[in-house]
Amino acid sequence: MGADVVFEVGGETVAAHRCVLAVRSAVFAAELFGPLKEGNAATTGVVVRVDDMEAEVFKALLRYVYTGKLPEMCKEDEDVTCQHLLVAADRYGIGRLKLICEARLCHYINVDSLAIILALAEQHHCQGLKKACFYFLAAPGNLTAVMATDGFQHLATSCPSIMLEIMAFLAH
Per the confidence metrics, is the pTM higher than 0.85? Predict the structure, then answer.
């Protein structure tokens, strides 16, 4: 009702209100009102394409922007949804949502997920999540088990600086 912007994301269209988005996100403000706006964003009926994001993730992001709450998530997919939502929150500068996702992801750290979660923490500057990963590695037996995973081997080659941080953390 009264929406003045439409987002095309993942093959779907999602209507929203530019003012609401701009108040909650400097990135949305710049995209919809500032020099980053596509075409003439001062008119009604603006259509903005969102690439590299699933429609459900974008809808969850908007739900948070409007209500301050996350949608109910399926338990089986909550970790993956939180990963995608953290990326979206970082992309749109919604710090509180990013922190919520970070906190939830801390509960999903295990031998198999550590490399993915640690890479995500590194890429999106999530210091609390990174520290939780380091503490998990410091627990007896975890480092050896994690090092045997393909994910950890990929992390070691794609992000060698994180290996130095792990060694420094474990040395103390």
Answer: yes
